[in-house]
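We emphasize that the prediction below concerns an isolated chain of 81 residues; any contacts that depend on oligomerization or on bound cofactors are therefore not represented. The input was used exactly as deposited, without trimming of termini.
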Amino acid sequence: MPAHILRAQFEGQKASYGWADEFGQAAYMYDRAQNDMRDALGFLLNHGVSLDFALRVFDTPRQDVWTPTREELVAGGVIKE
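Result of the prediction step, given as a token string:
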């Protein structure tokens, strides 16, 4: 996210969140990202997706597109043969 957008968000939300400085906003964003990742990983694992497959999903950089093969989907527990 561009710095000017983060700055605008900080300025607009600092009072409601009680952020004294940008570090408070960064800590909040980090915690949110960690919680979101934990929830998403838990969802995948609870639906039978293998840990290796789930970690590969999150390890793929956002600018890349990973299109798993049918064999990878079956091995990862995403689909059945």
